[in-house]
Structure formats: structure tokens, C-alpha cells
Write a structure and sequence with these properties.
Blueprint: H1 3-24, H2 31-38, H3 43-49, H4 52-75, H5 81-98, H6 100-113, H7 118-140, H8 144-148, H9 151-169, H10 176-191
Helix pairs in contact: 1-2, 1-4, 3-4, 4-5, 4-6, 4-7, 5-10, 6-9, 7-9
Length: 208
């Protein structure tokens, strides 16, 4: 197998793995179902990735890299809490439509029964927590709100909400309830403006 064909096959398998995990769930994802979707021999999954779980983690990594780049661009211009909520709403919708939330949620759920996955998932969640924390620090850092609700704590809450909303979406077919949460955040954000104003730094007393 040439390097070109090998790379092409790996790409096809990654695409098939992500698609199968999104549509069939972790329980319905196996080397056979992925190989069928990729149109290849299941032995190639083990040859290229070493197994189904490493393949699914690789598919998640690729999706995370793509989404992280898009998210950084989406929040780059947000300077207020209102603008950040607007950007977050767009991110949620894009991730839901693209299936990234489902990939992550399925593997989080699988890690409950497969402890060996837990360390891998935690490692992959940390960059997202740091991304949210850094974004919040940039927008509300130094404000009364940041003192009341530290960006690190808010980042953990955001990731938890991110996963919870995806799970609840399966019960909320028309998404009216989950959308209402973002609408609520959009209404509350302007009212929190005073809490997001940065406090002036105290001038140091000059030495007598």
C-alpha cells in the first residue's frame, strides 16, 4: 500500500468512525460497523489505529482541532458578556449540527463502563476548559463578576452545561427548551453589565 493510499484509507476510516459514533452511538460502534461505512477490511482499523477505542479518540481529536479553531475565531471579537453569550449560542448550534457534542458525549458515557477511557477523556477535556477560562478571563477578568464567579469555575460549569444540553437535546426534539436557556442567558447578560465593569486599580501610596 502506497503512502498516498494509506493516508487516504486512514482519512476514510476516521470519517466513518465519526459518522458511526454519531449515528449509532458507542454501543453500536464496532470495527465491523466502521469498516462497513468506510468500505474497507476491518483489519485495517487495527493496522492503522490499534483498535476501535484509539480510532474513536483519534476521530474526536480531529473534530476537536477543527472545532477549536472555529471557536477561537467565533469568540475573538467578543468584548462584552452579551457578545460572548451570542457567540456561545452560535457555537452550540454549530457543534450540535456538526455532531461534535455527540462524539464527546458518547465517549464520556462510554468511559463510565470502560475506566481506561476516563484518563483519555479527561486529558481531552482540559484544553476546552482552558479555552473557556481564557476567554472568560479576557472578557470579564478583573470585574466584580469574576471575583464572585471565577473564570475557572465558570469554565467547568460551561463544559458541564455543554454535555448536559446535548444529552437533554435527545429528549427535546424541537430544541425549544434548550434554545430557551440561551435566550435566558441573552436576556440576563445585559443586566449583569455593572458586574462586568472592571474595577480601577488602586494607586500605590507614594513613600513618605
Amino acid at each position: 500500500m502506497s503512502k498516498h493510499n494509506s493516508a487516504e484509507t486512514k482519512e476514510r476510516i476516521l470519517e466513518a468512525a465519526a459518522h458511526t459514533l454519531r449515528t449509532e452511538g458507542y454501543a453500536g460502534t464496532s470495527a465491523r460497523t466502521i469498516a462497513r461505512a468506510a468500505g474497507c477490511n476491518s483489519a485495517l482499523i487495527f493496522y492503522h489505529f490499534g483498535g476501535v477505542d484509539p480510532l474513536l479518540l483519534a476521530a474526536l481529536d480531529r473534530s476537536s482541532q477543527e472545532r477549536m479553531a472555529a471557536h477561537r475565531e467565533a469568540v475573538a471579537g467578543a468584548k462584552t458578556l452579551e457578545e460572548l453569550v451570542e457567540a456561545a449560542t452560535g457555537i452550540y448550534r454549530a457543534d450540535l449540527e456538526g455532531g461534535h457534542i455527540t462524539l464527546f458525549s458518547e465517549l464520556v458515557g462510554a468511559s463510565i463502563a470502560r475506566p481506561e477511557l476516563q484518563k483519555e477523556i479527561v486529558a481531552r477535556a482540559e484544553p476546552w476548559i482552558e479555552f473557556v477560562e481564557q476567554t472568560l478571563e479576557r472578557v470579564i477578568g478583573g470585574s466584580p463578576l469574576a471575583k464572585l464567579m471565577p473564570p475557572r469555575d465558570l469554565a467547568y460549569a460551561a463544559i458541564t452545561f455543554y454535555l448536559g444540553v446535548n444529552l437533554f437535546t435527545h429528549l427535546d426534539a424541537d430544541r425549544t427548551r434548550t434554545e430557551s436557556l440561551f435566550n435566558l442567558a441573552a436576556r440576563v447578560a445585559p443586566r449583569a453589565k455593572l458586574l462586568t465593569m472592571r474595577l480601577p486599580r488602586r494607586k500605590q501610596k507614594s513613600a513618605e
